[in-house]
Design brief:
The protein is of the alpha+beta class. The protein has one domain. The chain is built from four helices and six strands, in the order αββββββααα. It is globular and about 35 Å long.
Length: 127
């Protein structure tokens, strides 16, 4: 399950959480995670009900208890962070400015999800 026993150190496992599948594409990259507090933020594409096109956004979930939060019928899901909060969330996280800039490019639809994933890997490998 995706609760307290979930291994947060493995980003690939976090990225396997892809529900609800009808509305979610990705997630593409773990933007930030706080292992001691057991939460993570990801970059993903989301389709609101009634929209024809998916849009780039951020999602968050907590990994506690049996199933974590949010979940739907025991399936791990992501809580979509509303667009007006993106800037506030990203600016308060302790992250490298190059990483933050790439996430902003993704959110502005300048790059796609897979390009973001590769770009973040490249930046992280510089360290």
């Amino acid at each position: 399950m995706c609760g307290i026993d979930f291994v947060l150190e493995n980003d690939e496992e976090i990225l396997k959480i892809n529900s609800p599948r009808k509305r979610l594409t990705g997630p593409y990259a773990v933007v930030y995670k706080n292992v001691p507090q057991r939460w993570a933020i990801v970059a993903m594409d989301w389709n609101d009900e009634g929209e024809k096109k998916k849009h780039h956004t951020l999602g968050i979930r907590w990994f506690f208890g049996k199933n974590g939060n949010p979940n739907s019928r025991r399936y791990a899901t992501w809580l979509v962070i509303p667009e007006p909060l993106h800037h506030a969330v990203l600016e308060c996280l302790p992250m490298d400015s190059q990483i933050r800039d790439e996430i902003y490019r993704f959110l502005a639809d300048e790059i796609g999800g897979n390009e973001l994933k590769e770009s973040l890997k490249s930046i992280i490998n510089q360290y």
